[in-house]
Recover the amino acids of this structure.
């Protein structure tokens, strides 16, 4: 027995939005439904009944039992075969995504997975849009981590082995790591020509190295490369200089010291002599000292002066040790807590009274970075151990050619310290690690010399080697530098033209580039590309276009290892023969390696030089100071005069880091690491999800921020993929065996047109989101369309038509045509994110239809079609869906009260004015031509359109002029196939009878 739901709607031509539910009434009769339930218990009858229905049929399983196996089956077709085919057959313009090379060390982690999946989504989107995608995955193969692995395998230290042995072992290790990572990248479903000779690039490849040296030669010829002895970041743990990009910062505890630097009476300015005299009026044996504060006691042997602030007011204060201390006046009160009672006897200024105070073996400088906000207001200056000190000395015209730096490559004090102190008191320092025992020994020496004013433990931010995680030094050594200052104007212009995602990347890259004046490009290691410089008998570097031309030609013919293994005579150009030379064995910074990888694209000549070489660079946010910076600098340095300053990338995308679900950094030692291979292949305690689940997670997050991943987020992604698969399978099962139907050949209903409108809207939104690299927006809109528009609405209202109508019925053909169109679009629209699911469906569709499958769904091409966008249809359906929402709400109340079990047990009475219904009929091309025709067309809407949309068995209409609201009811008599007559048109109602009230 159907239950009657009554609705009332307001008046006016567009009053549909004013529908409101007024009451619900039901009787207790359930004869028809009870009989149906009883009949359904008979297995044979049920089977016979099912045979009369057109149920979905497809070879696509509802659930994937072995996702890794399915992925493996589709791998060739979706990766290297597809890459070759699309580049050969696609007719669109070339799209270039240049791969930032991951380091060839160890297995993949979640950061690798996020990075490569995002790149692959971009590439696959461009393939499915018909463009030729150029993508060559790469690996960064040189550098310390691999060299350390090689040394570990050889069981000897760097100094005990010849460079060629180290290089051979390092190469072997790098190639093994590449093979491991390549196999895992394939499992992520990344499209590339992985196994072709030129399908990937490696910075250890001979061609890559020679290309890099040619670029270095060009920078030399343009004057960008110099060789100087100056302070650089130096890592004792790695035994090499570091670039600023290779530093991290952490909080460290150090012993800070306050030290009294004595000033000889003959070296004082008149004002300081006067201050000393006033002090001796208090204490006859008072001596004058400049008080400094430092957190790096180990740097004191490198001291060459004291730097003051010109505008700072200094106090000359007497302490209990009869020392007159020159300190910042603002600091007296605070420093008395460390030094003991201080009595101010005079005041002097940095500019007028202290400039050019000659200290024993030292110089005096002024610098703007000196303040009185901390320390003593005076700064200990060691140009070998500080960039600011070095620059201040040079600005003051003080020679830095003989900088004091008694520290060796291992970070230990050398015997050179004796020449600075002039006595044996420094002997305990020799051989001591300056940042360990050496620092403690220095403090004890200061105490013994009577110049230690105070000491305390402080916590401060300090740079560490980002590889070894150990503190670094600033140490003066001979190094090779690339000039950045000259490139800054061009860099500023180039950065302005780049599209950044997120937009904050512009400021980050700009600040990184503009904050540097030079780049230390030399490293003191064996595993890398050599800086091919010769040194004459006087120790002067010879690096010219001529020498490089000759040397690079030799290395090109004999291999890079020949630089270490061949005789030096092989590298002396003809014009310099007969002279003695030695080779420099520094190697190029690995950031110079990877930063020149754009030359690979330039060599391919895939597009005009008026455009950036690559459309997209995409890496982690830490690469602003790394690969992004080195790439733009090397590119700008290579441009010829008159060429427009241009970065090698048009779009610069950055993603955040991956953390566990509590936000903590993933670490093997903490046991919170989640391997992408474990997600794909499963473990003893977790299921094998396959790569599409991981891809759904990657596409669904806001990648511009740090993102967590763990069991709950993987489960959520798996559920999202399951719902998508279920919806697509429903459409496939109901359409695959039907002939292909054109939308222009069928009679589309309002509901069909609405679905096509929503699909067109989705296509426009998804296209824009893909173009803007907003993949989470694509996924969100796909999920909403799939769940709300299709599964919860359209599938619900068309199931009866699909299952019960005649195979070739007019209405069923319209639904099938609509589903075919939706499925055809959806399988391509989601393919960049879920390539394996899309290929599964593509293959199953061909199998179900008995057709031969083409190579790939990606080669079908998705051309977003917005022809079905229809505002009027959307507005009408919006009104009707508002009614549906109210009806479903009432039905849910009835179900909760156990009045009904399913919506099919209900009927609806709609109370409406005639002008509202007339508008509804006219909007659906059901124009009223006569009174009789009005009745006929009204029942077309009430018997077919409204029940379908509202999801109930019958809709009755009341409240219309000339119609008695009480004239309609539904009875519980099953009258299947019975034709009834009355004021309405003849109607066949399968289970319920429509008649007049007695």
């Amino acid at each position: 027995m159907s239950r009657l739901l009554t609705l009332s709607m307001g008046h006016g031509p567009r009053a549909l939005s004013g529908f409101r539910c007024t009451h619900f009434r039901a009787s207790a009769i359930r004869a028809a439904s009870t009989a149906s339930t009883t009949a359904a218990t008979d297995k044979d009858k049920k089977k016979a009944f099912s045979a009369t229905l057109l149920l979905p049929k497809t070879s696509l399983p509802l659930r994937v039992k072995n996702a890794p196996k399915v992925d493996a089956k589709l791998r060739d077709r979706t990766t290297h075969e597809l890459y070759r085919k699309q580049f050969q057959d696609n007719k669109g313009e070339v799209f270039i995504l240049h791969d930032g090379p991951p380091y060839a060390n160890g297995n993949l982690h979640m950061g690798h997975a996020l990075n490569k999946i995002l790149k692959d989504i971009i590439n696959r989107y461009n393939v499915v849009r018909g463009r030729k995608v150029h993508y060559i995955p790469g690996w960064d193969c040189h550098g310390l981590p691999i060299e350390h692995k090689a040394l570990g395998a050889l069981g000897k230290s760097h100094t005990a082995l010849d460079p060629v042995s180290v290089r051979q072992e390092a190469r072997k290790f790098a190639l093994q790591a590449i093979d491991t990572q390549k196999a895992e990248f394939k499992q992520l479903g990344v499209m590339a020509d992985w196994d072709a000779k030129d399908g990937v690039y490696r910075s250890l490849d001979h061609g890559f190295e020679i290309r890099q040296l040619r670029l270095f030669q060009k920078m030399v010829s343009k004057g960008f490369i110099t060789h100087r002895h100056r302070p650089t970041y130096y890592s004792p743990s790695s035994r090499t200089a570091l670039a600023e990009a290779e530093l991290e910062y952490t909080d460290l505890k150090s012993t800070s010291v306050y030290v009294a630097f004595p000033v000889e009476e003959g070296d004082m300015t008149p004002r300081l002599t006067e201050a000393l005299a006033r002090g001796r009026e208090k204490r006859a044996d008072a001596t004058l000292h400049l008080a400094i504060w430092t957190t790096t006691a180990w740097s004191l042997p490198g001291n060459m002066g004291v730097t003051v602030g010109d505008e700072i007011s200094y106090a000359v204060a007497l302490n209990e040790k009869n020392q007159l201390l020159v300190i910042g006046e603002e600091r007296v009160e605070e420093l008395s807590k460390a030094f003991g009672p201080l009595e101010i006897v005079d005041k002097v200024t940095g500019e007028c009274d202290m400039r050019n105070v000659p200290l024993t073996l030292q110089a005096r400088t002024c610098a703007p970075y000196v303040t009185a906000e901390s320390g003593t207001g005076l700064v200990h200056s060691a140009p070998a151990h500080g960039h600011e000190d070095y620059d201040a000395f040079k600005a003051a015209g003080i020679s830095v050619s003989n900088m004091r730096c008694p520290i060796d490559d291992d970070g230990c004090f050398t015997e050179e310290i004796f020449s600075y102190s002039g006595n044996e008191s420094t002997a305990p320092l020799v051989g001591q690690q300056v940042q360990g025992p050496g620092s403690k020994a220095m403090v004890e020496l200061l105490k013994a010399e009577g110049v230690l004013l105070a000491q305390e433990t402080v916590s401060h931010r300090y740079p560490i080697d980002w590889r070894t995680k150990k503190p670094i030094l600033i140490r003066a050594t001979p190094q090779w530098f690339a000039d950045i200052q000259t490139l800054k104007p061009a860099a500023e212009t180039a950065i302005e033209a780049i599209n950044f995602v997120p937009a904050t990347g512009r400021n980050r890259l700009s600040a990184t580039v503009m904050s540097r004046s030079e780049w230390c490009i030399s490293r003191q290691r064996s595993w890398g590309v050599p800086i091919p410089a010769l040194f004459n008998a006087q120790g002067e570097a010879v690096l010219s276009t001529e020498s490089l031309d000759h040397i690079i030609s030799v290395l090109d013919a004999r291999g890079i290892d020949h630089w270490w293994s061949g005789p030096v005579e092989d590298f002396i150009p003809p014009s310099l023969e007969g002279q003695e030379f030695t080779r420099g064995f520094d190697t190029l910074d690995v950031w110079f390696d990877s930063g020149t990888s754009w030359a690979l694209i330039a060599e391919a000549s895939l597009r005009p030089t008026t455009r950036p070489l690559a459309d997209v660079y995409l890496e982690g946010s830490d690469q602003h100071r790394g690969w992004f910076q080195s790439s733009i600098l090397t590119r700008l340095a290579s441009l010829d005069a008159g060429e427009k300053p241009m970065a090698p990338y048009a779009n610069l995308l950055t993603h955040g880091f991956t953390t566990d679900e509590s936000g903590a950094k993933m670490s093997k030692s903490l046991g919170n690491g989640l391997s992408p291979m474990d997600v794909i292949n499963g473990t003893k305690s977790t299921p094998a999800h396959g790569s599409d689940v991981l891809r759904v997670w990657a596409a669904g997050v806001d990648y511009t921020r740090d993102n967590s991943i763990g069991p709950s987020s993987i489960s959520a992604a798996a559920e999202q993929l399951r719902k998508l698969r279920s919806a697509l399978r429903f459409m496939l099962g109901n359409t695959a065996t039907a002939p292909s139907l054109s939308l222009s050949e069928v009679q589309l209903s309002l509901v069909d047109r609405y679905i096509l409108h929503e699909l067109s809207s989705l296509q426009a939104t998804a296209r824009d989101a893909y173009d803007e690299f907003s993949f989470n927006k694509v996924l969100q809109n796909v999920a909403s369309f799939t769940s709300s528009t299709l599964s919860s609405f359209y599938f619900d209202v068309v199931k009866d038509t699909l299952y019960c109508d005649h195979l070739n019925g007019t209405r069923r053909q319209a639904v099938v045509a609509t589903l075919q169109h939706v499925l055809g679009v959806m399988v391509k629209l989601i393919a960049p994110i879920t390539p394996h699911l899309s290929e599964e469906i593509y293959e199953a569709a061909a199998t179900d239809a008995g057709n031969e499958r083409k190579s790939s769904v990606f080669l079908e091409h998705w051309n977003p079609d917005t022809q079905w966008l229809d505002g009027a249809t959307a507005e009408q359906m919006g009104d009707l869906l508002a009614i549906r929402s109210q009806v479903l709400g009432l039905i849910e109340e009835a179900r909760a009260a156990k009045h009904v079990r399913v919506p099919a047990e209900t009927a609806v009475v709609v109370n409406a004015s005639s002008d509202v219904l007339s508008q509804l009929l006219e909007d659906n091309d059901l124009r009223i031509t006569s009174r009789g025709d009005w009745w006929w067309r009204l029942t077309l809407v009430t018997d077919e359109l409204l029940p379908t949309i509202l999801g109930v068995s019958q809709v009755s209409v009341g409240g219309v002029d000339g119609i008695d609201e009480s004239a309609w009811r539904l009875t519980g008599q099953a009258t299947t196939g019975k034709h009834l007559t009355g004021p309405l048109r003849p109607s066949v109602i399968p289970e319920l009878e429509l008649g007049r009230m007695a």
In short: The two ends are 18 Å apart (CA to CA).
